[in-house]
Amino acid sequence: MKNRLALFILSIISFQTILAQDNSKICKEQKNSLDNYYKDQNFNEAEKTVQFIVSKCPDLDQNFFLMSEKIYLYQLEFAKNEQEKIKLTQSLIKIYNLFDKNFPDNQNGNVIKKVNYWHDLKLATNQEIYATLDKLY
After folding, report:
1. By the 8 A CB rule, do 102 and 60 touch?
2. Are 43 and 51 contacting, i.e. CB atoms less than 8 angstroms apart?
3. Which stretches within 1-137 are classed as H helix?
4. Which of these, 59, 126, 64, 123, lies nearest to 93 by C-alpha position?
5. In angstroms, rounded to a whole number, what is the distance separating the alpha carbons of residues 80 and 109?
6. Sequence-ordered list of residues with C-beta below 8 angstroms from that of 30, at least 6 positions apart, any chain
7. Contact assessment for residue 83 and residue 51, using Cβ atoms and an 8 Å cutoff
8. Residue 136 has what pLDDT?
9. How far apart are CA 44 and CA 31, in angstroms?
10. Count of CB atoms situated within 10 Å of the CB of 90
11. Quick one: residue 45, left, alpha or beta (phi over 0 = left, psi -120 to 50 = alpha)?
12. First CA to last CA across the chain, in angstroms?
């Protein structure tokens, strides 16, 4: 009975290790694709790749966040309507939040940028905006 339990636990650990290696390989491939899309200025595909990377890859570096910001800013500049602009802005704000979470000492000014978008697109109340700014200062 103990041997079966030990074998079962060992097989679970081995399976998780294999999944982690596969995930790492996929993340590396997606990051390379993102670099290529960015260099080729294929921002639609780059945005989709950013969304995938954010959802599946835990080890993100500062360059990823800075590149993602540029991709979303480009997309915002050419948004076709207000709904698309709001959706893109919410994705950009998610990038800012993740950036600040992963790199709390960054000097990117993400909170100010986020508050500006909240105000411009009326995505938050004045009370929420002031509370966020109060935490910053």
Report:
1. yes
2. no
3. 2-39, 43-56, 62-77, 82-102, 110-121, 126-136
4. 123
5. 27
6. 49, 52, 53, 56, 57
7. no
8. 76
9. 15
10. 13
11. alpha
12. 60
Question: Which residue, chain included where needed, has tokens 């079962």?
Answer: 8
62: its two tokens: 């500062």
pLDDT digits (tens, 9 = 90+) for 1-43: 665 555 455 445 444 444 444 578 899 999 999 999 999 999 9
Whole-number Cα distances in Å, 72 to 18, 60, 67, 79, 88: 33, 17, 9, 10, 7
The pLDDT tens digits of the residues spanning 38-73 come to: 999 999 999 999 999 999 997 789 999 999 999 999
Q: Who contacts 64 (Cβ-Cβ below 8 Å, separation ≥6)?
A: 31, 34, 53
Structure token pair of residue 45: 């595909």
CB 43 within 8 A of CB 37: yes
